[in-house]
Each structure stands twice: as C-alpha cells, then as structure tokens.
Design a protein that fits this description.
The structure holds 2 protein chains of 2 kinds. Chain A is α/β, with parallel strands linked by helices. Chain A contains 11 helices and 12 strands. Chain A has helices spanning about 30-40, 50-55, 65-70, 85-95, 105-110, 110-120, 160-170, 190-195, 215-225, 230-235, 240-250; strands spanning about 5-15, 15-20, 25-30, 45-50, 75-80, 100, 125-135, 140-145, 155-160, 175-180, 205, 225-230. Chain A has an 8-stranded parallel β-barrel with strand order 1-4-5-6-7-10-11-12, surrounded by 6 helices. In chain A, a hairpin with a 4-residue loop joins β7 and β8. In chain A, α1 (about 30-40) runs parallel beside α3, α8 (about 190-195) packs parallel to α9 and α9 packs across α11 (about 240-250). In chain B, the strands form 3 sheets. Chain B has an 8-stranded mixed beta sheet. The two termini of chain B are about 15 Å apart. Chain B is about 25% helix and about 35% strand. The chains are: A alpha/beta, B alpha/beta. At the A-B interface, α3 and α4 of A face α1, β8, β10 and α5 of B.
Chain lengths: ~260, ~200
C-alpha cells in the first residue's frame, strides 16, 4: 500500500535553515546538510527546501547547496526558490533534485507550469499554494511573495480556482500551505484541505499547523491528503519522526517504518 | 568498473551519487563504443518514452546494449525502455525484457503513482537478496510493465505491476533505488554483486 508521506520542510536563508512564525521573524535553526541527513536517517519520506528570499529578491536560489544535498541524502527532495523558467528548473534538476516547486512565478506567468510539464514531465512539477482564509468574506485567497512580510500580497485568485487551473496546466503535485495555521502548531486546516482534496486528482500535500502526532493522523484520515509537511515541530524536536511513524502505524495510517 | 549510460536525460547525478555513497565510482559514458569495456552498466531515465527511445536509437545505443553480455540494469524509464513495447508514445522498446509497458490503471487513486510502496518478491534472484516483506521503495511513474515470467518483485497500485524484472543479463527496477534509503542501497549492492 502507498504510504502517506511525512515531509520536513527546511526554509533556507543565507545557507542556513531558518524558521519563522506565520512566515515572519526568521530565526536560525541549523546547518542545511546536517539537518537534511538527520531527518532522512530518522525516516522522513521526502524533504522540501525553500530558499525563502529568492523569489522576493527576484533571483534563482543558490545551486551549491542543492548539489551537496543530493550527494548526502538517499531520499527524494524538492527544491523551491525563484525558479521562473525552464532554464532555471534544468539547473536545479541537474544538481540532483527530484522535483522543483514553484509558487509566485507561477502566479505571475501560469504558462510556466505547462512549460515545465512539457520539458521535464509531470512528476517533477510541484506547485506551492499559499492560501489565506479571509474571515470577513469566508473566502480562501491565494497570496504571493509570502517569504517576506513586506512583499506578501493578495493575488487575483481564489484558492479553489487556482488549484483547478494549475492542475489543468500540468502540475504533478500541490502543496497547500494554509497561512492562518502556519507556525502556530494548532493542527492542520482540515476543513480547507478536505474542500481542496475534492478538487485535486494529483497528490495533495498539507502544510501549516502541525503541532502534535494526532494532527498528522487527523489530516491523513479526515482530509485524505497524500503527504503532510511540517517544519517547526521537527526543528524544535517537539515531534521525533520515528515516534510519529509508529503512532501513525498504530492508528492504521499506511506509513513507512524504518528499522 | 560500472558505467552510467548518459543519453542526455536528467537524473544522472542522483544515480552517480548513490553509487558513490556505496564506495563505488561509476563512470558516465556518452559513447556506445565505450560500453563493452565495463563490467556492469546502468541505464537511467526520466521523461517521455518517445524522446528517450529516439535518443537511444539515434546515438547508437540500441546495438551496443543488445550486444552487451554483462549485467545491465534500467531504472524507472530506463527499465521500461528495455521492454518489448511502450504504450507511452506507442513505440517499440529494446526488447531485452519480455512484455509490454502500459498505462497504470489507478482507478480512484491519485496519479502519478508517487511515493513509498511495499514490494513483494515473487522470484528468487541475486537482485532480491535480503529484501524483506515490509521493505518499501520510492516510485514515481504512470506507466508500468505487466507482471509476467520476468517479474522478480511486484507492487500493487490500482493493479499489480512489475517492480523488479530480470532476464539473462538484463534487469530493471521501476522505482528509484538511488532514492530509496537503506532498502535502495541494499538493492544497488545486490546489483554490484550479481554475476551473470
């Protein structure tokens, strides 16, 4: 049976892993390679690296650390940060990344998704979606440039509409980051994820809000997502991956146990 | 010495780094003439079967691979290219492994088949040594080889399909052993030990 994926997310800034709350106030967590190795040895199923300042500074992420990651870990990994053309993506994939994730550049130019799909195949095109729940209107809205609080802004898309569009353009996977939940560890946004799951035939990854092991089993069981992404609970060692996986297995969630 | 066949598709580095982690230094070769000088070879591949097959033919790999008598293993699309036929682009493959590659019928499940899944060993072979019942490997694909007499291990996603195949000196793995943690390392080691 296909296992539900546990995906630690490493936000990268100036060659180090950082973590902020609600995308703000970044603090240094540790060395990229050391953390990547630690998580893969502990049984992470996949890793995601976001160079958070790249898109905001309108440049491609630093390729040096991508190659170092590829040399050092033996699980798949995805890289994001300022990838805005087929040429950019080719450079990142050449270093040994398995997938590339695009967010703000896809909003600026949605055809980029199709271009990447046609060149590299669906399996390596991940689209990250930052979705904000507007309590006033009850709408889910797509945001961009969320790597920098001063640059973050609302886009013209509602989340449902954007998810359908990126899928039609050839995305192979969607990471849905529920911004209201990000970094506060109160649980995933099950209601939103369930609604978006219904629209999504490709793998859907939940992001934002993981605080305890129960949150993971809930998001897999209730929202039927394919993977769950989390950062601070792993970085701050609130949750150990082997403990989490054993908990999931005990609760009948298909998982990969590492001996 | 082990060769990694480079037809210009990506993913060469991932396979190379995986062997380097095992203490083996593979050589990446781009000229079919070089192949016969190596003890074993890997045919990696990602992308579309049509494009990859055309490159193999145009660059002269077809004959070189057919004449090769030492262990040669295809990974992912590389495995599919070793088979008789691929429904992806409706093209003939290299014909080293019997049977066609067809679109995976996933039913209600999400497609592509992406992530870690268990494999079941169905045939004893040096390649499947020390693989346990619950071992999982990393898959990313939407086409697959139907289970037949060449199948050494199968996986189920919507339907059963071949995860590992072998015939004579040719073998294939549908998943990515280079990205499959300790289980993958074990399988790559098995390949290094395999004597034809």
């Amino acid at each position: 049976m296909l296992s539900k994926r546990i995906i630690p997310c490493l936000d990268v800034k100036d060659g180090q892993v950082v973590k902020g709350v609600k995308f703000k106030q970044h603090e240094v967590v540790g060395d990229i390679i050391e953390l990547a190795k630690l998580y893969s040895e502990h049984g992470a199923d996949e890793l995601v690296f976001y160079e958070i300042s790249a898109s905001v500074e309108k440049r491609l992420l630093d390729l040096n650390w991508v190659r170092d990651i590829a040399r050092n870990i033996d699980i798949p990994f995805c890289v994001a940060g300022g990838i805005k053309s087929v040429e950019d993506a080719a450079k990142v994939l050449e270093q040994g990344a398995d997938k590339i994730s695009i967010n703000s550049p896809a909003i600026a130019r949605p055809e980029l998704i199709k271009e990447l799909h046609d060149e590299f195949g669906k399996q390596c095109v991940v689209v990250g979606v930052d979705s904000f729940y507007d309590e006033q209107t009850g709408e889910y809205l797509v945001y961009q440039f969320t790597g920098d609080p001063n640059a973050a802004s609302q886009t013209r898309y509602k989340t449902q509409e954007w998810i359908s569009k990126v899928q039609a353009l050839g995305a192979g996977e969607i990471v849905l980051n529920c911004m209201n939940q990000d970094g506060v560890r109160k649980g995933y946004d099950i209601k939103q994820l369930k609604e978006m799951r219904a629209l999504c035939d490709i793998p859907l990854i939940a992001s934002g809000g993981a605080g305890k092991v129960e949150d993971f089993s809930e998001v897999f069981t209730d929202a039927n997502v394919d993977g769950a992404l989390a950062a601070s609970v792993f970085h701050k060692q609130v949750i150990q991956i082997p403990t989490l996986k054993q908990y999931l297995a005990n609760n009948k969630v298909a998982t990969r146990l590492c001996s | 010495m082990i060769a990694i066949i480079n037809t210009g598709c990506a993913n060469i580095n991932s396979v190379r780094f995986a062997f380097e982690r095992l203490g083996v230094t593979p050589e990446i070769i781009s000229n079919p003439e070089q192949l016969k000088g190596f003890d074993r070879a890997i045919l990696p591949g990602v992308g579309h079967a049509n494009v990859a097959m055309k490159r193999l033919v145009d660059q002269g790999w077809k004959e070189a691979i057919a004449q090769y008598e030492k262990p040669l293993m295809g990974i992912c699309l590389g495995m599919q290219l070793l088979c008789d036929y691929s429904e992806e682009g409706q093209i003939n493959g290299l014909g080293m492994i019997n049977g066609p590659v067809t679109q995976l019928r996933t039913g209600d499940l999400t497609s592509p088949h992406m992530g870690w899944n268990t494999i079941q060993i169905v045939g004893q072979h040096p390649l499947t040594r020390n693989i346990d019942l619950n071992d999982q490997v990393y898959f990313v694909h939407s086409f697959a080889h139907a289970v037949n007499e060449t199948t050494l291990a199968q996986c189920i996603y919507g339907q059963p399909f071949s995860a590992i195949v072998a015939k004579d000196n040719y073998a294939g793995m549908q998943f990515h052993p280079e990205k499959s943690a300790k289980v993958g390392a074990k399988l790559l080691n098995n390949f290094m030990q395999w004597q034809v």
